[in-house]
Design goal:
The protein has 3 domains: 114 residues, Acyl-CoA dehydrogenase/oxidase, N-terminal domain (Butyryl-Coa Dehydrogenase, subunit A, domain 1), CATH 1.10.540; 98 residues, Butyryl-CoA Dehydrogenase, subunit A, domain 2 (Beta Barrel); 146 residues, Butyryl-CoA Dehydrogenase, subunit A, domain 3 (Up-down Bundle). The chain is globular and about 80 Å long. Helix 3 runs antiparallel to helix 7 and helix 6 packs parallel to helix 8. It has 10 helices and 11 strands. The protein has a 4-stranded antiparallel beta sheet with strand order 4-5-9-8, covered by helices on one side. With 395 residues, it is α+β, with helices and mostly antiparallel strands. Helices cover 50% and strands 16% of the residues. A hairpin with a 2-residue loop joins strand 6 and strand 7. Its cofactor is FAD. Pathway: Amino-acid metabolism; lysine degradation; Amino-acid metabolism; tryptophan metabolism. Belongs to the acyl-CoA dehydrogenase family.
Length: 395
């Protein structure tokens, strides 16, 4: 019998299951470029952005130069990257801050994707190249004050007036709202749910920022007000005639969150790991105590499990096999896991865990928004429940 010998690779506490080995050279290169950008431009500044409740106006252009805005779309100045590569970018961006990943998700997976998937060629030519470069920022107007998990009950209404459309209504909790040069607004019409491209400055279209947030502070969140906004017929997205339009965009954005949550979890775990090996109590690093090692082991488990789940869904998406129900499982599992990791890391850091000197409390607060937006944890649980039982609980 021939003998076989192998040498096991050394364990990397930051990549315990050697997930890096599962990536292609191109995927690693993209990941590393985004990671370097986040390390150099986001991490040193984001605590200040969070504390001041702002995000730099120049950031979209910087992200455009990086090539991550609409990077998974083809043509119109977009890179045409794989779903997995886009996911890795989301992971690294959210390891910096959920607000930065949200800006990229809303730009590329909501506003740009809506125009790319459902828009006319003229709309694509007008907006997508500028949005890919970060020269124009987009937002996505679906959620309303009284219509969150049930978008079909939206009150924003569009009526025909000759060759024009007139929109009246209100949208709430809109990321990039007042920052945006263009809003994709969804409205009920006599012909079904339709989408409209509404440029900034259109008469009757105004925004109002939401203040006093304790989460996603390094992000612009706004109310959109549409007061008899008159638009030409060319402003309507011709391909979308039902809720399938906005829901398809949400599924794209949720996919990015699956990856992003793993990034936030990783950042919290790494902060706790570094802290525990240098913080000395009772004459030795706290990492030497059994209770702290148990916390670190559980965090490492959740981070690796979340990253593997995201990677598996990315491969499925690239192969054309990914269903919305799969994305629901990814978002539900990974965001809940990230919340657990953040809360555990906060305990490891003790009192230092509540300061912005460390990333943990910022990620922990941000994740309280991530678990709610793009479909609440409850709704995603019901989507999965309906898939496994064949019984829809909320319809």
């Amino acid at each position: 019998m021939p003998s076989h010998s192998s040498t096991a690779a050394a364990l990397d506490p930051r990549d315990f299951l050697a997930i890096d080995h599962l990536l292609s050279d191109e995927e690693r290169d993209i990941r590393d470029v985004v990671r370097s950008f986040v390390r150099d431009h986001v991490v040193p500044n984001v605590g200040e952005w969070f504390e001041e409740g702002r995000i730099p106006r120049e950031l979209p252009r910087e992200l455009g130069k990086l090539g991550v805005l609409g990077m998974h779309l083809d043509g119109y100045g977009c890179a045409g990257a794989s779903a997995t590569a886009y996911g890795l970018a989301c992971l690294e961006l959210e390891a910096g801050d959920s607000g930065v990943r949200s800006l990229v998700s809303v730009q590329g997976s909501l506003a740009m994707y809506a125009i790319y998937r459902w828009g006319s060629e003229e709309q694509k030519q007008e907006w997508l190249p500028r949005m890919a470069a970060g020269e124009a920022v987009g937002c996505f107007g679906l959620t309303e004050p009284d219509s969150g998990s049930d978008p079909g009950s939206m009150r924003t209404y569009a009526r025909r007036d000759g060759d024009d459309w007139i929109l009246r209504g209100q949208k709430m909790w809109i990321t990039n709202g007042s920052l945006a040069d263009v809003a994709v607004v969804w409205a009920s019409t006599d012909e079904g749910i339709r989408g409209f491209v509404v440029p900034k400055g259109t008469k009757g279209f105004t925004t109002q920022d939401i203040h006093s947030k304790m989460s996603l502070r390094a992000s612009v969140t706004s109310e959109l007000i549409l007061d008899e906004v008159r638009l030409p017929s060319s402003a309507m997205l011709p391909g979308a005639t039902s809720l399938r339009g906005p829901l398809s965009c949400l599924n794209e954005a949720r996919y990015g969150i699956v990856w992003g949550a793993a990034g936030a979890a990783r950042a919290c775990y790494e902060a706790a790991l570094d802290y525990s090996t240098t913080r000395v109590q009772f004459g030795k690093p706290i990492a030497s105590f059994q209770l702290q090692q148990q916390k670190l082991a559980n965090m490492a488990l959740e981070v690796n499990r979340a990253t593997l789940l995201a990677l598996h869904l990315g491969r499925m998406k690239d192969e054309g096999r990914l269903r919305p129900e799969h994305v629901s499982m990814g978002k539900l599992g990974n965001v809940n896991a990230a919340l657990d990791v953040a809360r555990t890391a906060r305990q490891v850091l003790g009192a230092n865990g509540i300061t912005l000197e460390y990333p943990v409390i910022r990620h922990m607060n941000n994740l309280e928004s991530v678990v709610t937006y793009e479909g609440t944890a409850d709704v995603h649980a019901l989507v999965i429940g309906g898939a496994v039982t064949g019984i829809q609980a909320f319809r």
